[in-house]
Design brief:
The chain has helices at 3-39, 53-80, 83-115, 123-144, 148-175, 191-233. The protein has 239 residues and is mainly α. Helix 2 packs parallel to helix 6.
Amino acid sequence: MTTAALATKVARPRTRAWTVFGWFAFLFLIASQATAIAISPPDRDMGDLQKIMYVHVPSAWMTMLAPLTVLVFALRYLWKRREQDDLLAASAAEVATTFAGLTLMLGMIWARPTWGVWWTWDARLTSTLVLFLILAGYLALRALVDDRERRAQWSAAVGILGAINVPIVYMSVRWWRTIHQMQSSPATVDPAYVLGLRLNAFAFLFVMVFFIHRRYEAAMIERAAEHAAEAAALGGSST
């Protein structure tokens, strides 16, 4: 049995459990969105446009949480030099980039009818864009560097840089003059919107965890296939 086939066989029992979790995560997301939309009254100023909050705000939270996941596994890699930690950091970075792009897109959709413009160089928007570009740079770096150890070390450094930017994104609305509202949380929004916001926060968290794990599984199988191909090229045994 090849290394790639063995990796696939090993991952299969875990995949079934994670498939169940994935279905739960997406069904919970649908139910959370439906519940939030159904129970929340139109906002006094924004009307039903307010309901984009149940997608934009949880997505923004994941945009800040996922890079911190990258930070944890990047530091673990630099400490223990385990390839699995590098792959977990890379998987989290891909998901973080996706959420950062989604946050920016949803923010622009919300900004157009609220502020009258699609984009403005507001401190919160600009710092989020910087975070997105750092994450995109992380992925580009991994695609351009062939040496595994060097790629892992360099991308870990970029991942740490991205995580350093997270508190800047979070505090930007307090540190600088900004038209963006203050940080959204159950303590800062109308009680009528709290349940919907909390449900969707958990829903997005579950989806994020599922995406990271599935991308990590795929990365492990890809890496096993690479090792098997290298062993075959060198005339070694991959059984």
